[in-house]
Amino acid sequence: MLLFMAIVLPILFAIFIPLAYRSIKSIHTGWFVLLAPVLLFLFYLRFLSPVQQGEAQLARVSWVPSLDFYFDIHIDGLSLLFSLLITGIGSLVVLYSIFYLDKTKEKLGNFYVYLLLFMSAMLGVVQFDHTLALYFFWELTSISSFLLIAYWYKRDASRFGALKSMMITVSGGLMMLVGFLTLYVLTGTYSIRETIAQVDTIVTEPLFTVAVVLVLLGAFTKSAQFPFYIWLPDAMEAPTPVSAYLHSATMVKAGLYLVARFTPVFAYSEVWVWLVTGIGLLTLFWGSLFAVKQTDLKGILAFSTVSQLGLIMSLLGLGGFAYLVTGDAVETFTFATFAAIFHLFNHATFKGSLFMVAGIVDHETGTRDIRKLGGLMGLMPVTFTIAMIGSLSMAGLPPFNGFLSKEMFLEAVLGLLHADISTMTVAYLVPIVAWVASVFTFIYSIYFVWYTFMGSRKEEQLPKVPHEAPIGMLISPAILGSLVILVFFIPNVIGDWLVKPATAAIQSTAFTSAADIEFYIKAWHGWTSPALWMTVGVVVVGFLLYKVLPKWQPIYSKWPERFTLNRGYDSLMDGSLTWNRALSDRFMTGSIRDYLVYMFAGMAILGITTLFTQGGFAITTEGLAPIRLFEIVLTIILVGSVMAILITWSRLTAVIALGGVGYTVALFYVIFKAPDLALTQLVIETISVALFLTAFYHLPKLDKHYKGKEDNRFRLGNFLISVAVGLTVTLIGISAYAQRQMTSISEYYKETVYTEAGGGNIVNVILVDYRGFDTLFEIGVLMIASIGIISMITLRLQKKKKGATVDEIE
Amino acid sequence: MKSNDLILQTSTRVVFFIIFLFSIHIFFAGHYTPGGGFVGGLLMASAIVLLLLAYDFKTVKEVLPFNYLAMTAIGMLIALTTAAGSLVFNVPFFTHWYDYFDIPLLGKTSIHTAMFFDIGVYLVVVGITLTIIEMIGGDN
């Protein structure tokens, strides 16, 4: 319960934030908010030691037990690492936002409520063992992220970015939900741990691959992998603390968490490992390539986030190979997982600080456009230092933590070559792609710092006079920056306490506990290490390419606009609207005649196909009554009247012919021995013909209104459909008669009409006694009809009195 | 438009009562021979329509000062009460009951609760038919 309370603590906090915002104006609301993540961070720190010993924390809160829905909490190394990142960076971001967002100008109540909502959601995602509970909080992250991106909702770009991220992440989330349900179908449990226990039995099922792909779609959309990354650059319209928190350190890592969490289940599938590795590498390459094109500080960082997420994703994919191989190769691939988790941690530190730097630059100069910036080093020395640390770490240079994880990454991709699994020649591409992507990573990291802080000052282009940021704004990035350096010098502390328990959770077959893992992070691998020479190559080639950057950067503008993914998204969104509108305009014509055509055509087609495909058609001559002269004569009159209705041009003729039909039917009742029906039919027919005549007396003349329109002309389609409907009904009638399954219950009525009901007229006794219920409601129907007529006529009269014209009423 | 409809009006005075009695007859005979509340009601309504044709709305209203909407409602109420009355005797909804009685003048007669239900139907049918005709015809 305490663990559950910890997850929802931010939401509970969020309830009081608007109160604090309204009533306490003198203190920045952020200071109250800060309490929640700090408390939680300290709370989760307590678990470090037990989790490292392999004692997972478990808790259960029931929600819908009858549907097997529990909030099952399971904190192992992986969940703990994420929880600490969420609360730790959360604290720093809240601290930063206190100085970033103005107390008087911004709606702080909204901001912190959304942020706390997001924090709870994220903690839920990484701690729940129950897939539906995970999905629940997963969507909560999408929603809170949507709210945060559109925080400045009066800007068009904010709303566009929010909608885009919502559409992409939620559609992925729905795919993931289907994947989870597929898993439930396979295993009968929603628990991830129990699914892992059953993995042997489900891995051969065909549905397993379906679940793999669907869950991966969820992870890829959330973690901004290719080709779903397009929402992330647009999400940069959010306030910078949000970008730093959601779009670099936490939410985008939810997809990575999902991949890591499900590795013990899905890594047995080759589809999974190759997809994760392949898409990861593609994203890494693509993101780094296009980061250099950006001119917006946050744009560069967004693409670099995409690229780095791809890197981690590909490492997680490589780690999945550990489940497919045996022997020494297992160690090679588990090392990839280790590297992935380490880089995940490192990325959160340096990317968080870089976003905060971008925010400071924006805040102090008024622009994030890299073309207007330059020469800020002397003006903002502290910011510059932090930016330098973050960028060089991102580029993978010593003495920063990025160097360690980048080396490990290169080693891991090289490991793919040594393993037996790499029979596919495509495996040789992997290190090359990784290396090229690293070169571009180096270029954009340098590009980011140099263009902002070096070169000549262009103060006249800046909206504000630049100066160093206030100390409070610098605290958070400074802490993250110091972590970047600190981790380089004592990497194994992080490795032992955070990375190894997480790796043990992912590689649950290779390691039973964190103590089994013997990897040791070291900065120096010796001269023979290929990763070292690859890094040297990255630096040399990257530096040379950076020097000639202005020469080749224009190449990007040569890329045709038509083939960009954003254009694809836009045309999909616009297209789905226009296509749907065009489609519905086509068949929703507004004409009742058309709708009747659909209904009758559907009825005829369904009726006839069902009748013949299901073998329902039958015809019999058995038990038919002999045909009498009366009937033949009456039928001829009936058909004649009906034809008259169809072909006549005069309404009066049609009404009279309809009356003829009615009286003929009454005569049929007479010869078929139904006196009650005949009586009623005669009277009703008379009244309805009189009403028809009343109605038509008031109608405009046909010729006057329809002259030239030929509205009564013969339509072949209508003719065919009406013939088909008539045929359908006739055939069904014949078949039904031929296949009577049981005798009628009328014998019962005949026998009991006098003894039970004390009557002689069966029809009337049925109406008032046996089935009086029907009659009761039929007179109800009549009553409603008369009330309807009253209201229609009197309301019309009242409106007329008020001076409205007839056209307005109609 | 007032024309001299003397023949029509005079014959209507006679024919009205014939139709009226026929309607009553068809109503009461309904349980044993063709007829019943529905046809009886329609016939009664047509008798009044005949009056309407021969005279005019105002005259008929003076002679037969009924509120037809109220008549519909009363008929519905009678029908419902008959159906629901069985509940009082702890039998299912719509259970009818009948017996024979020696009534002075009429002799041995059966009284059937279905008749009360039929009276409800009769009143509803008369009520709605005349409401509709009054509504449409009176709209001038």
TrEMBL record, chain A:
UniProt domain MrpA C-terminal/MbhE: residue ranges: 715-793
Pfam families in the cross-refs: MbhD (PF13244), MbhE (PF20501), Proton_antipo_M (PF00361), Proton_antipo_N (PF00662)
Membrane topology qualifier: Multi-pass membrane protein
Statement: the UniProt record of this protein carries the keyword Membrane: yes
Start and end residues of each NADH-Ubiquinone oxidoreductase (complex I) chain 5 N-terminal domain: 65-107
Transmembrane regions: 6-24, 31-49, 69-99, 111-128, 134-153, 165-187, 207-232, 244-260, 272-292, 299-323, 335-361, 373-397, 426-450, 471-490, 531-549, 595-619, 625-647, 654-672, 678-699, 719-738, 776-795
Keywords: Antiport, Cell membrane, Hydrogen ion transport, Ion transport, Membrane, Sodium, Sodium transport, Transmembrane, Transmembrane helix, Transport
Gene Ontology CC: plasma membrane
Domain MrpA C-terminal/MbhD: 637-701
One GO term of the biological process aspect: proton transmembrane transport
Domain of life: Bacteria
Coarse class of the protein's main subcellular location: membrane
Subcellular location: Cell membrane; Membrane
Domain NADH:quinone oxidoreductase/Mrp antiporter transmembrane: 131-419
GO molecular function: antiporter activity
Keyword tRNA processing: no
Alphabetized NCBIfam families for the sequence: 2a6301s01, PRK12645.1
PANTHER family: NA(+)/H(+) ANTIPORTER SUBUNIT, NA(+)_H(+) ANTIPORTER SUBUNIT A
Family per similarity comment: Belongs to the CPA3 antiporters (TC 2.A.63) subunit A family.
Protein name stated in the entry: Na+/H+ antiporter subunit A
TrEMBL record, chain B:
Residue span(s) of domain Na+/H+ antiporter MnhB subunit-related protein: 7-130
Superkingdom assignment: Bacteria
One GO CC term on file: plasma membrane
Location within or outside the cell: Cell membrane
Alphabetized InterPro entries for the sequence: CPA3_antiporter_subunitB, MnhB
Segments crossing the lipid bilayer: 12-32, 38-57, 69-91, 111-133
Family matches, as NCBIfam families: PRK12573.1
Name by which UniProt lists this protein: Na(+)/H(+) antiporter subunit B
Organism, as annotated: Tetzosporium hominis
